[in-house]
Design goal:
It contains 12 helices and no strands. The protein is mostly helical. The chain is flat. The termini are far apart.
């Protein structure tokens, strides 16, 4: 049974009312946090005004970009219980792997999920307006599901690509640590040199080392600053490197030989992985050869014999 024009209008209004109700619920939760935050901001503004009056701080900038306002508003929504459901801990870990787990990244992820979860069902409804109720329910369900999951799927592809780059950059990082430790630099100096001089080569690991160095300079211990480095990509080799750096920081000692053995083990593992990929590719190419080359080979080698047999059978049938 197709939907009439009045039913179309009612369905659109129902979707818009559901979206408005979601925003109202989130706004009520957000307002509760804003009241507490406003009191804290009032105290901070008074302290900042006193410090500017005494010359301890620079004057506050007069204009703020509208993009920053949107990011700040989205960040406030992410901090609400509703926002923590849309950007869960698993999603935050995924944003960590993509290198965008800050206020801007979380706000953009939140807005993308909200927008696509409303936009896709509306597009499906307008494209298939003359549909039955069952088809309409399926369109709404799959549109909502795809709109909700699409940002996560995109971030998973980006995280997988960054994980592949980490595996490629890890042997170079080990060799650099071994070289810098061999010339007498400390752990902090070695990480600083890698952060400043080799960031264009170690694009992913250099960024993670820079984050760990900032946390260490901010007052955290070496073990605390290397925790993100060792856990963000779920890589056992990175965990081993982080443990080795922490041990050298605490107990000292020569690390050239352990780093050499570790580098050889990683390279051997990469060779084994490459052999495995070549073996899988050989099996796939066998199927391609069977589908493409075998028919042509049969025609070339057996085509003449098949034609001779067909002609002989034709003459026999004609004589009969």
């Amino acid at each position: 049974m197709a939907l009439s024009a009045t039913q179309h209008t009612l369905v659109i209004l129902a979707i818009l009312l559901i979206a408005a109700a979601s925003f109202l619920v989130g706004g009520a939760l957000l307002a509760r946090g804003w009241r507490f935050k406003r009191n804290l901001n009032t105290v901070d503004q008074k302290i900042a005004a006193n410090e500017r009056a005494t010359g301890m701080l620079e004057p506050e900038p007069k204009s703020v970009r509208w993009q920053d306002r949107i990011v700040a508003m989205g960040a406030d929504w992410v901090d609400t219980p509703f926002g923590r459901q849309l950007v869960a801990e698993e999603d935050r870990h995924l944003l960590d792997q993509c290198g965008v787990n800050d206020k801007r990244g979380q706000a953009q992820f939140f807005v993308a999920r909200m927008t696509l979860a409303i936009f896709f069902p509306l597009c499906g409804f307008f494209l298939l307006a003359n549909s039955t109720w069952m088809r309409f329910a399926l369109i709404m369900f799959f549109g909502l599901a795809i709109g909700y999951m699409l940002p996560k799927w995109v971030m998973q592809r980006v995280a997988a690509e960054r994980g592949r780059k980490v595996s490629e950059e890890l042997p170079l990082l080990i060799d650099l640590l071994r070289l810098l430790q061999g010339v007498g630099l400390s752990v902090d100096q070695s990480l600083h040199v890698i952060e400043t001089e080799f960031s264009n080569v170690l694009q992913v690991l250099g960024e993670e080392i820079a984050i760990a160095s900032r946390q260490y300079r901010a007052g955290r211990t070496r073990e605390q600053s290397m925790r993100r480095f060792s856990t963000v990509f779920d890589n056992e080799d990175l965990q081993s490197i982080a443990r080795l750096i922490v041990q050298v920081e605490h107990h000292g000692g020569a690390v050239q030989e352990p780093l050499k053995l570790f580098s050889e083990r990683i390279r051997e593992q990469r060779k084994l992985d490459m052999k495995e990929r070549v073996g899988k590719l050989t099996v796939k190419m066998t199927g391609v050869m069977v589908l493409t080359l075998l028919p042509g080979l049969l025609i070339i080698t057996g085509g003449v014999g098949f034609l001779a047999v067909i002609r002989a059978l034709t003459k026999i049938a004609g004589n009969v």
